[in-house]
Amino acid sequence: MNFFASFDHLTDPRVQGRCRHQFVDILALLLCGTLAGCDDLPEICDYGVARLAFLRAELGLSFANGIPSTDTLERMMQALRPSELETVLRTCAGALAGRQLCVDGKEHRATTPAGRRHALIRTVSAWVADAGLSFGQVQIGGKTNEKTAIPALLGVQPKLSLFLPEWVAGFNALSYQVPPITHRANAHGQDPLCAVVAPALPRPL
To answer: Is the entire prediction scored with pTM above 0.85?
Structure first.
């Protein structure tokens, strides 16, 4: 799935014929850097340099002249039309509607203290497997479990509540979590279809 194809609908504010970088490369770098947790433009540039091979090979971006400078990124951010960008990003993420949203919890390796049963770092993630995109992750509290983390993940992530009116969620042995999750989703105007994978359910759904 080429999500960056939606950027073709944006107006390129630059003077054509005097551009060293492709429009889609700059926008994709800004988006990927933001999703990767970069706090400012210099960090986005550093991210681009470190992940250049990934951006080219996995995302199909060119970057024929390398990573744009912070000044180039800043000028682009100032010239973009916010209303156009918002519409395109909503359309881009909306293409995931109806796809399976996988939700699962993991204990991080090498974080289990000697004599302890569980790892110190446990997280719950939500991702679209066939698109290779993660839509959010929350850490499980020390005295809680997935039972409280999953509704929080699906309830506080704006990328879910804003963009996906319909989604199919897959859970692993978490049947007792389906009702609160669906209730939370319905409150956001979503209409999810939940599937539970478990050898034996503790009670009927």
So the answer is: no
